[in-house]
Design brief:
The chain is an alpha/beta fold and 573 residues long. Helix content is 35%, strand content 25%. The radius of gyration is 25 Å and the shape is globular.
Length: 573
């Protein structure tokens, strides 16, 4: 346990208060196509009191969201509550009709869903979407509701709320869209807010601001908050109590300090060990798995870097008629070098220029100015056969293992594709190379015959890594390679990357917005902000002693280490 967690005072929640939400013996089943019932949630007990933050944690498939959606009568088609009772404010709501639930949702309990992109109406102004809650529940007429919507957007932390209320969702950033969903959730003054992975798709600094605001609502209004998350670092920062779910069963429950400081169940210990934000030190290869060390990696010998960017600049033309300058500067004077056998992490928020810089390094974009050198050779203007030869030396692993593999191919065909494209080896030799690569990424040999859609997310990412290594490249660009994965799967992939680097001398350019992950794998770190490299150096120097305010903000946003004064909520004072 970190010192921050040890110093935290326990929350003062009235244990005698009637729970806002009380779930007893909840059973949820889903009927499959063959008529069988899959038990997704089994005997779950859960209580959330006024002014309390309860975190429901676990991996994908553990039953977190199913439990929350069952409590709100929002189960997907095929799902049904098959046992147990649900009470809101002491009132049994287990047998309410859908019409009766429409009067409860929004008024007594508000929901902040995970993805604001699909949760907001794209053709309706955001102010009208907030106002609609007030109108539906008879709390205001249309004109008054629009006026109050501006106030609610302001309370949800939306800057310039009057102007934002007139905008459409696509005109807002992901963080602002999530704040709009908070305004919708709190509009009718519910006693309970359910936040279902409300920040998993956001940058860490935006994540912190959103969670800060939800916490303020709990403190100032005495609202109860049920926080659904797979990240124990977030739970460590925010929760009064933590409930751990595995395969639909509660395996552990207690205060944040109890669960994180003295976990009793092996699954909880596994989640804690896998959470980058709760771990210390850098991963180093040790036998078949990677272990952590507090020491920085040994410096590489002085050799020509595998990749070097020299004062690289990239401008994109703006659409005709757009206000402001005629071009958008995405990357502005970036210089960096990646030495052989090391990991250089490029970090920053969305829009900072990370992915554009990676595309320049991969020669998928041509720089407006500056030079790109690969293995000591200036490749800035490379074209045709020269460029094709160079591209054999660098490969990329993308963020989404779901979108980056062709579903029409078998796993063997996916991995062998680069070998076929470059005419490497005979059919027999390529098949042998596929077997070697599957073993390298710890997949069974019979996975070769399977389709990518038959694999889990972590297995798909292992296939993507195997494909990237097929041509024995000098450089592998890893573009947010673990951000779409659960923390335990994320830990496995990071272990794998570190082991492969040690065994094969691989060189990585690692793109990430998550400094907790970067801390585990990087030798050197470069921090991008608005297209400029504001700071770079060893991972130890950047993460432990950052010089720039922007870097310090990123480091401070790493979940799991935030000191938080625990004051009594309004309802308990």
């Amino acid at each position: 346990m970190t010192q921050v967690q040890e110093d935290r005072a326990p929350a003062r929640v009235d244990a005698d208060a009637t729970p806002v939400l009380e779930v007893e013996g909840l059973e949820v089943g889903y009927r499959t196509r063959d008529g069988q019932v899959y038990r997704a949630v089994r005997g779950v007990d859960l209580r959330v009191r006024p002014g309390e933050v309860v975190a429901l944690v676990g991996e994908s498939g553990s039953g977190k969201s199913t439990t929350a959606h069952a409590a709100l009568h929002l189960l997907a088609r095929g799902g049904s509550v098959t046992g147990g009772r649900i009470r809101l404010g002491g009132r049994d709501v287990s047998d309410l009709t859908e019409r009766e639930w429409q009067a409860v949702r929004g008024r007594e309990v508000g929901l902040v869903p995970q993805d604001p992109t699909v949760s907001l109406n794209p053709v309706q102004r955001v102010g009208d979407q907030v106002a609609e809650v007030l109108v539906i529940h008879g709390l205001a007429r249309r004109r008054e509701a629009r006026r109050r919507a501006v106030t609610l957007l302001e309370q949800a932390g939306v800057p310039d709320p009057a102007a934002r209320a007139r905008q459409y969702p696509h005109q807002l950033s992901g963080g602002l869209r999530q704040r709009v969903l908070i305004a919708v959730a709190i509009a009718a003054g519910p006693r309970l807010v359910v936040a279902d992975e409300p920040t998993s798709a956001l940058d860490v600094t935006v994540q912190r601001r959103i969670l800060d605001h939800l916490e303020t609502l709990v403190r100032d209004r005495g609202t109860a908050l049920l926080l659904i998350t797979h990240d124990l670092g977030v739970a460590a920062d925010r929760a009064d109590r933590i409930v751990v779910l595995e395969h639909g069963v509660v395996v552990e429950e207690g205060t944040a300090d109890e669960v994180l400081g003295a976990p009793r169940h092996p699954y909880t210990r596994q989640l804690i060990a896998a959470a980058p934000s709760l771990a210390d030190g850098r991963l180093v290869a040790s036998g078949p798995t990677a272990t952590a060390t507090g020491a920085p990696a040994a410096p590489a010998a002085e050799v020509a870097p595998v990749l070097e960017l020299v004062d690289v600049r990239k401008e994109f033309p703006r659409p005709r008629g757009a206000a402001g300058a005629r071009s958008l500067v995405a990357v502005d004077g970036v210089s960096l070098r990646v030495d052989r056998g090391t990991t250089y992490a490029l970090v920053g928020e969305s829009g900072s220029g990370k992915s554009t810089t990676a595309r320049l390094a991969l020669h998928l974009e041509q720089p407006t100015a500056g030079r790109v050198r690969f293995r000591g050779e200036d490749v800035t203007g490379a074209r045709g056969e020269t460029l094709r030869r160079l591209r054999r030396g660098f490969q990329v692993v993308y963020q989404s293992p779901y979108a980056s593999l062709d579903p029409r191919f078998t796993v063997a065909e996916v991995i062998a594709e680069p070998l076929r494209a470059y005419g490497v080896g005979t059919r027999v030799e390529r098949a042998e190379r596929v077997r070697e690569l599957l073993a390298d990424v710890a997949l069974p040999a019979d996975a070769a015959r399977r389709s990518p859609r038959e694999l889990s997310g972590g297995q798909r990412q292992r296939v993507a890594i195997a494909r990237a290594l097929a041509l024995r490249p000098d450089l592998v660009v890893l573009d947010e390679p673990v951000s779409a994965l659960d923390v335990s799967v994320q830990a496995q992939i990071l272990d794998l990357l570190v082991r492969l680097q040690a065994e094969h001398g691989l060189t990585y350019l690692f793109i990430s917005h998550d400094l907790a992950v970067v801390r585990r794998v990087a030798d050197h770190v470069g921090v991008l902000h608005d297209g400029r490299l504001v700071e770079q150096g060893t991972a130890e120097a950047i993460l432990l002693d950052p010089r720039e305010d922007y870097t310090r903000e990123l480091v401070a946003a790493i979940p799991g280490r935030r000191p938080r004064p625990r004051t009594a909520p309004a309802a308990a004072r």
